[in-house]
Each structure stands twice: as C-alpha cells, then as structure tokens.
Amino acid sequence: MPHIPNHVANQAWTYRIPSPPRIPIPHPLLDASGLPILASAQNADSEYGFEIPHFLNPFRLMDLVKPDNMLNWRYEQRREAQAILPFLYLGPLSAAKDFDFLRREGITMIMAVRKTSSAQTNFVVSRVASELGISTISMDVASYQELIAAFPRAIEAINLHLSSIYNQQQIQIASTTSPYQQVPNSIPGRVLVFCESGNERSAAVVAAYMIQVYSFTLVDSLQILTNQRFCVTFDDNLKTLMHSYELIVQAKRDVLRGQRAQLQSRGGQAEADVMESGRNGKSSKRTLDETFEDVEMDEGYRQTDRERFEDRKGNAPFEDGGG
Fold first, then answer.
1. Which H or E run includes 137?
2. Which residues pair with 138 in a beta bridge?
3. Using a CB cutoff of 8 Å and minimum separation of 24, what contacts does 171-178 make?
C-alpha cells in the first residue's frame, strides 16, 4: 500500500540559497536597414546630479551605432576601447596604455576602476598619460557593494572634468575669435573609463552615468553598451546592483520634483520652510502624528486598517494530504 504523506506542498520548492529575481536584458530589435532600435537620449538631467554643460544635451546616438555591430563583432575588439557616448569611451587596461589610440581619439582624462587589492600597482597608464598631458583618476573598490557607493563620485569626476575643459575652451574662443563669428558646438573633453577587462566594473560605471545623467533605464543602457562593446559582462549580482542604483536615482528625482511642486504651489513660504529644514538638519518628511492629525484615529484609521487586512486570504505553503 503506497504511503500517503500527511502534508502536500502547494507550490514547487527548491533547495538553494534565496536569490533575487533575474533581470533579463533582451537583444534590441532591428529595423529594416539592420540597425538596432535603441532608446534615444533625453536632455541631460540637471534636476539631480551635477552642473551639466549644454553640450551634453541631446546628441545623435545613432551616429555612433554601427549596422549589425553585434553580429560583426571580432574577438580582437575586446582589447580595444569603444565610444559609448560621444565623449565617453569604455575599454580594457590595454586601451589605456595605447599611446596612439589616446592621441588619435583626443582622450583628455583616464578613469581607472580598480580592485582595492591592486590599487598600489604602478600601471604604465600613468607614464603614457603624463606624456600626453592626460588627467588620471582612480576609483578603488573591493566589491560590488562598494561599487554602488563609487558611482556618484565617478559621475561627478567625469562631469567636473568635462566642465573644466569646456570652460577653458570657451575662454580661448572668446579671446581669439570675433564676437560675430559663429563657432560650432563641439565636445572638447573625452573620457576613457577602464578596468582590467573593460567588461565589468568600468562598464557598470558607464551604465550608471547613462542612467543618472541621461535618464536611460537599466535595460536601455545595457542594450546600448552591448551593441557598442559586445563583450561586456553583467552577471545577475551586478544587474541587481545596477537596478538598485536606478531605483535610488529615480527616488531622488521624485523627491526633488515633489519639493519643486511644493514650492510652486505654496510660494515663498514653502521655500523658506525647506531652507530652514536644511539648515537645521531636519528631515522634511512629516511625522506620523502630523500625517494623521486630521484623521479620527480611534475609528477612521482603525476601520481602514481592518478593511485592508481582515479578509485577506493567505497562501499556505502546505495543505493536508489525507495521510
């Protein structure tokens, strides 16, 4: 007589360490001419971030996209750097040491995203950059958890460098050209972001830049990165981390938009309240008592709470098996 268990599982069970859901990144669709259909860049987001020069406003992303770039990718290209944005390059350590490449592309700053354990390594990069007069900066991280904290510092360093180069160029133009002479807009600075392979930590920094500055979604930014540099690698842990950063950026944007809407609706008094709150170091959020000060707590709130939870149906993991 077969044994009938006393309990039967209501759903499939797995025996492994719990993990967050996977984040699939689909390949972009192709248009009739074979070009990938990628998201368009929006205005550089000055609502949250740093001072952004006007030349970082909408650009033609399709000018950088090559037809069937992913299909025609060559294995040797992993040792080279590729332009992800008109002013932002992504590549491996070998590209940061390539004298001819740096001079040909007009790179003005090199950013190394290194493991903390290799931070003291004397890279040839410093010597090459010194010969070409290129600025260098390092972001040393021990793990992915430290990487997410380094994103804002890396983005700030990139934008401050581009702003500095741009301002120097404007001063030079003003001193050498006629006030009636039309000067075409250009991108004076170019930044190369690299790590040992150019496929993981440095790629994450570039993706974070696209998410924060141009409001790309995580999926859009990774699709563009993959199209331009097919060998980039984002495992589940790194994609989860990038998704967390995307949510952080979106939350800060929402807070600032809410504050601006409050200022517009309430006028100068709201602005004074916000400034006073900032000076005192107090949160602008209301306390629980302030939130419900106009609500009849004895009946209204409790009744609402009962309606939400009283008839809620649970999902039992097991049921009786009849054994």
1. strand 135-141
2. 112
3. none
